[in-house]
Amino acid sequence: MSKLHAPLLDVKREYIYPIIEKKLELLQQTTHPDEIINLGIGDISLPLAKTIQQAICLAVEEMGDEQTLRGYPPGLGFAFLREKIAEVEYGDLRISPEEIFISDGINSDASNFQELFAHHASVGIPDPSYPVYLDVNLMAGRSKYIHILPCREDNGFIPQPPEVVLDFVYLCTPSNPMAVAMSRDDLKAWIDYAKKTGCILLIDNAYSAFVRSKDVPKSIYELEGAHEVAIEMRSFSKSAGFTGLRCAYSVVPKGLVGHIEGKEFSIHKLWSMRMATKSNGVAYPIQRGAEAALSEKGREETKTQVDHYLAETKRLKEGLLHLGHSVFGGLDAPYVWWKVPGGKTGWEFFDELLQKHQILSVPGSAFGKEGEHFVRLSGFTKKETVEKALKKIGKL
Ligand code: PLP
């Protein structure tokens, strides 16, 4: 008899995308594909920018030549990409290439960072939030040490520092699914909390490229004190269309410390050791593609794509507001957080939108209890799709 890891059973949440896909498949049997409006899955819809395509193809050709062939990539990432990120993304924010770690996605990083902390370390998790934060901590056996940070309409969907002391906390800005961003003051309150308590902040910054509001920092390192308390995770997935290519990075400043049996340790050193041991790196052509995304031309092309997604999100939000609905977010992130009318649950409204109007959404409860009376709509779409959806919603 092999003994399995019991906390795996603590993950009670049903994995929602297969359920949504099943419902969609059923509808597809009776409905013409053109009639179905997919505002559900938060995946990119525009093709890869030309500059990125070319860089990846060139790198693949290098791999086909004995002179330029590359084997295993470095576990922490190629120097050319770490240097480019430090220069382009962090400029004068005092982040060095050695503090940048390349990975295959924030999904992996958000899952893995909890390994730095003790089994009984307390963790703060916003509700609603990207489901991985909660589920990986349950899987790790931390169910008794999870502190939920509610994000409701009355706090602007922004998690607030609690009275209790936490060892680490996940914060997502701009957030998924509520699509709101933390202001300078919101982040400062968390930095002050972390400095007072010794808490480490894990900032999921997947949507940094979508930030447009003036009082919203693109990076937490724009704020004083962040280098001593925060790890920042970023991704090329949504900013440059890499969801199918896989490339992301985390910033782990050298000033971060934690304790083992009362003795201070460098988190940067521990993370470098952990990455070098457990990762054989991200494919060379993909890292060259990511480097190209940060070139002048690449930034121009990808900004046009991000602007497009934001414009469709705005069209969706303004259309819903015009129709008298309560909607939130959508200024600094490509989603709209829609308060379900008439007190129904998100699942009831999801079914109504799908069955009566052929519109695919995501029920808010997929992201936590506080999402029960919301649905999320995605702006990763086209103008015609948004217009068609608004026409149908107008007849609700
Ligand atoms: N974090 C948030 C908040 C997301 O919304 C997503 C994807 O939707 C991810 C992380 C996953 O990012 P990656 O593709 O880099 O794994």
Task: Explain this structure.
- This protein has 396 residues and is of the alpha/beta class.
- 36% of the residues lie in helices and 15% in strands.
- The chain has a 7-stranded mixed beta sheet, sandwiched between helices.
- It starts with 15 loop residues before the first helix and ends with a helix.
- The structure holds pyridoxal-5'-phosphate.
Low-confidence stretches: none
Shape: globular
| Strand percent estimate | 15-25%
> Which cofactors or ions or other ligands sit in this model?
pyridoxal-5'-phosphate
Major beta sheet, specifics?
7 strands, mixed
Terminus-to-terminus distance: 56 Å
Task: Write down how many β-strands occur, each being a DSSP E stretch of 2 or more residues.
Answer: 15
Rg (CA only): 21 Å
Q: Trace the largest sheet across and list its strands.
A: 2-8-7-6-5-3-4
Helix content: 25-40%
What's the order of the H and E elements?
A: HEHHEHEHEEHEEHEEEHHHEEHEEEH
Specify the structural class. alpha/beta
Provide the residue-averaged pLDDT. 96
Count the helices. How many?
12
Annotation keywords:
globular; binds pyridoxal-5'-phosphate; 15 strands; alpha/beta; 396 residues; 7-stranded mixed sheet; 12 helices
Quick rundown:
36% of the residues lie in helices and 15% in strands. It has 396 residues and is α/β, with parallel strands linked by helices.
Secondary structure: elements and pairs:
Layout: H1 16-28, E1 37-38, H2 50-63, H3 79-90, E2 100-103, H4 106-112, E3 123-127, H5 132-139, E4 146-150, E5 168-172, H6 184-197, E6 200-204, E7 230-235, H7 237-240, E8 248-251, E9 257-260, E10 263-266, H8 267-278, H9 284-293, H10 296-322, E11 327-328, E12 335-339, H11 346-357, E13 359-360, E14 362-363, E15 374-378, H12 383-393
Parallel strand pairs: 1-13, 3-4, 3-5, 5-6, 6-7
Antiparallel strand pairs: 2-8, 7-8, 9-10, 11-12, 12-15, 14-15
Helix pairs in contact: 2-9, 3-9, 4-5, 10-12
Bound molecules: pyridoxal-5'-phosphate (PLP).
